[in-house]
Write a structure and sequence with these properties.
mainly alpha; 6 helices
Length: about 120
Amino acid sequence: MSGLAIGLFLATVVLDVVGQLLFKVGLLRLPVPAPQGLPFFLAIALSPAIAVGVLAYALEAVLWLAALQHAPLSLLFPLASLSYCGVALAGWLVLGERVTPRRWLGTVLITLGVAVVSFGGVS
């Protein structure tokens, strides 16, 4: 995989993690108890954190398409599971979420799977 494809791919993973963090932060900032029905959707639409999260996802989609121009889907899509690992790590580091040993084990297994796919060579 070319350096450009790696850079584009890594940017999509970072943007995915950032988007998820912003979605969670936006929801955490809603009043308690959270509004229901239409007020809930209005609160989401007016949340700056959620709006930036949506923008992160939009940019991620564009960069994903660019990455697909430079690397096989059969390689990139399994590698995209690294965003799950990034979200678990960011949830723990940034949001102070508790991540159970079982979840850490799953994260390690995903990372090992990504290593198998990425170092398996491209045909």
